[in-house]
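User
Please review the sequence:
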Amino acid sequence: MEHYFTNNNNLKSNLRSIEYKVQNTSFVFYTDNGVFSKSSVDYGTDLLIQSYLENGKKTGKVLDVGCGYGVIGIVINKINKQKVDQIDVNKRAIHLTEMNNKTNKTKSKTFISDIYENVVDKYDVIITNPPIRAGKKVYMRILTEAERHLTQNGELWFVVRKDQGAKTIEKELQKKYKIDLIKRQRGYHIYKVDFALTN
């Protein structure tokens, strides 16, 4: 099975467009084979976006980690007008994100990065729907290493399903950081981690 967190230059392209609407704002996204949730914006991503728009920062710079075809960062840029950078290890995902910025008349700096390998700036918010199927080592690095790339009062926002280890991840992060469960719905948990406030 070809995973969305790898690169396969031989994977056949099948470009399509999908529609998405949040807070009365409509978006069109181009998707393709080899990216996560290519047929529609998945429920977890939608819940993360809505939770952030309702409860997250309205200003400051945002890093969208594992951006896929760009949904989270593009929506935040369009609705909140926050400056956004978007990263992914998947080259096709980055290409689609660039296309979708043009389509939705949004702007973000997009670049290839294996987790935070090529990230040099500091951000007020890091937001991610982490690739759980990439394995614990990968997704825990995304969550725990976020601290190094956040400003002093920066926040990490992420979504994880209950049956994919939400409570285990929560307990792991609680050992060192303040983590808040923002929303729980249909088995999905939305968390905010404040690295400035340690337990």
User: Anything to note?
Assistant: The CA atoms of residues 87 and 111 lie 5 Å apart.
